[in-house]
Specification:
The chain has 395 residues and is α+β, with helices and mostly antiparallel strands. It is built from 11 helices and 14 strands.
Amino acid sequence: MTSHDPLERYGALMNKQTAPAHLPDKVLKRAEETAPTHLADSVPERTARTPQRSAIPKRRPFKPFALAACLLLALGMGIALALPLAAPDASSSSVPSFTSRFAVKAYAASSNSIISAEEGDSLTFECDMLGMTPSQERYEEEGFYSGCMFSIEGEGITRIQAHIDRGELYRYTYEEFVRSSDPDRWAEALSHKPTEIGEDERFAEYDLVQPALGDDGKDRNDPDKLVAVKCYQRLGSTIDTDTDALREEGADLSSYRFGFWNNDADFAYGSSDRPTLFNSIDSLDGAQVTITVTFEDGSCQTKVIELKATDLEAYQITAQDGSIKGVSLTGESGGDPLASTDSSSSTMTMHTLEGTVVEVSDEPFPCGEASHPTLDEPLTGRHIIEGHNDGNAAA
């Protein structure tokens, strides 16, 4: 039976090869002519050729190498035709090989759950399609909370540092409770206003507070209705988080989520033929996020993730009362998000962000100190309250 294994065919070709009778002398002569200066004295001249055997061992170091070189040269074209071209490995990556010591996982506000982890070098985020974008007049002050969020997981993590080169990072928290268990908290969440950021009793540290109804099938006015509060806290473009400090706050690493924020009003409202939400997502297209994790032994690992705007298929999440609870990804590629769709269909296209890990190293954090080492009040609160009180927006 004829073998189709290219390596076996290559071996058979090699076994059939014999060197011409005149080849050794030609090779040896050429080797002597091109030998390095420091070897010249060890090679006898061929002008006084003699049958003395003592001269032969001095020539032998060149012989196997030269003969093999000639054989490979003679076979070069044949081997190139006999062997198929090697196809690139589909799983190969331009990122240097490093054992990942921490995971970056995408978190969805619509379902308040992890939706994807790094698969190879890629990560899919889910924007908040039900989130509100500020008016053009207030966009620069309040900014856009994309809903594209992530958390960090790993063993023995003591410190997380991160930086985004466009916009800022924010922290997201989600708290569910029964309405009657804390009616004052629920009432304050319902009455929260952008112009009063930083003045609340229970939510003073947050830049944005959003009340939400739980999906328990009960009437919204029922005292035992499950309710929730979504809180967003701007952190600046560079953050430094000590996990011990989190524990002191009663939080843990798995519940600490970061998101992408931007306030480029010109970009968001620059195209009238596209929704502001889409433009806001596009304002983060091409941004790079650098994340460094430090471990208990003092070592660290750094990953650089590049963001890219993309269109993916999504579906509506319907609550028990028939209201739209959120929009979640299906995992499939989407079509044109601006194309008209059947109003009865729950499937749509989400304009969101993907992330690609473009660099991994064991180097320390390269982006400097945290933007706000201590954050005593909301960043948005300073901006809006100052502008609201004296009529001039802060720079």
